[in-house]
Design brief:
Blueprint: H1 2-15, H2 24-38, H3 49-53, H4 61-65, H5 69-76, H6 81-96, E1 102-106, E2 109-111, E3 116-120, H7 129-170, H8 197-206, E4 210-215, H9 218-226, H10 233-240, E5 245-249, E6 254-258, E7 262-269, H11 271-277, E8 289-293, H12 307-330, E9 336-339, H13 342-362, H14 368-389, E10 397-399, H15 402-427, H16 441-453, H17 458-466, H18 472-487
Parallel strand pairs: 1-9, 3-7, 3-8, 4-7, 9-10
Antiparallel strand pairs: 1-2, 5-6
Amino acid sequence: MNENTNENQDEHKEENMYPFNYSREEFIRRIEEEDKRFELERPHIELTPEELESDFPPMSEDIFTELPPLLHAACDRLADDEERETFLVGAIGVLSGMLPNVKGRYMSREVSPNLYVFVMGKYGTGKGALLWAKDMGEATDAHRVQQSRLAGDKFTEEEAQYHRQMRLYDKGKLQEPPQAPRPPKHMKLYLPANSTKTALMQLLMENNGRGIIFETEGDTLADMLKQDYGNFSDVLRKAFHHEPVSYFRRANNEDVKISAPALSVVLSGTEDQLRRLIPSIENGLFSRFLFYSLRGNAEFKNPFGTEGGDTAYYFARLGERLKDMYQRLDARDTPLWFAMQPQQEQDFVQQYSELKQEIHQHISHDLQGTINRLAIINFRIAMILTAIRYIDAQDGTLTCTETDYRNAIAITRHLLQYSLHVYETLQTRHGHNQLAPIANKQAQISECCRQFKLGRSFRVIAESVLGDKNKFSTIYNWTKRYCDKMRA
């Protein structure tokens, strides 16, 4: 009885998702009748082979051209467009964790440039470009580990001396007991995700609340998040906004608090691995991540080419330069403050006010929090670009150039399409009986633009053209890529 009742409720709920409580069939019939009244012809659109293959447009070449010199040169080392994009997204994530003492003010609070990034792709689809991004931090990580080893050697000597003095004290040959040496901190840049919550928190604390979690298999972090004794997802949510996090250290029987964690996360994995990490949009992690999806390349690359060695050497040298930058920033007594120019602040508010309204009107009010966090992500990307442009700056304010401001907007808006795709994926109901979509992609886009001219919402167009209202992110991409140009 209960099962039948639930099924009826689900069916009724599905029907009520259409305007005026129309049934699915009635909704489609009325759309077709409305089409006949307007008699607006479909615009003719010619698609390139690349456009036919993917719904995600590549990054504009202007994005790469306008990057700060260090990033621009690094991207130029990679010939494949998708590799460049993957590297850039990963590099922004890594660099976000390599700028200690770079701060800005957002909503009257101090913020650091830390980002969370997830690169999606099928098994074996070019996620290796992320490893070049990781190489940018390897020299810094190695230096910090070496510091810990040297401190460990010194501690061993001091501990031996302490025990010798204790024996003398026990024999009455010393008036005062010796002071035990403090164990050294475990210094790192890259924090391992295959740890317990307590172990990772301990490492974060010993590194002054800073570090980067970099994993090429999203399962690693997902497994740790799901451990009964782990429950690290609350730490990720709080750390994104630099909110205090605490944990209980059993060995010393004490509570430890990290006042302002500055954690960066760079992950890659498949869509299934993403679902394990972020099972729904309600858990709070979805809106804190930047997403990128690999399109894939059918071409087999020559594994014996000689350019790989040169590239490895290049990124090793780049890592050394970034290590020097990290050490210089880490040694500062006061932060370098990032600031936008007044006209940029005004434009920023206008841009995100309009975007928030657009997403609310055409897609879902559920994404309002996502747009709010996308704005702070945008702000942090501008911080990163500005800091890297002025990599040798010693003092003063890091004033955002118009080039870096516009490029940060462009990068963030480009990556928004992937966030909408992930939202769509997490919202999709399995077993949904789709209507047959228009078969030809060019015809689909033409019909999309025709209905867009009529002022229909993305969900209505997705239902009519693709047979599934949940595919609104595809419609959103098409309107931005094709329909807006036609209106202009």
